[in-house]
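Chapter review: from sequence to fold.
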Amino acid sequence: MPRVTFHEDADSEIKEAALYYEDRAPDLGLAFLDEIEKTSRRILANPMAYQGVGGEVRQSPVARFPYSVLYVIESDEQISLIRKPTMCSSIWRPYETG
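The token string follows.
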């Protein structure tokens, strides 16, 4: 089974979003992290199932949250979750201001 690696920007963005949601309601940040985990498992199970959004980048929606996980299939052994601002600009991220 392939493994998932998180680009440092993706990891930071996920943590920021979890903190945002946790500030809004108790345990909502944990629910967000749980959905990210579930999305990662779905990607691992069938990485080709999700829509391409440009080049080798694909995206999978996160259930219950206005968020998508962007990823690149590096090889049969590794899938990298990424964040590229130019690719994500149309995806609403409520914790961003300005």
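Two observations follow directly from the output. The CA atoms of residues 19 and 29 lie 6 Å apart. The first helix runs from residue 8 to 24.
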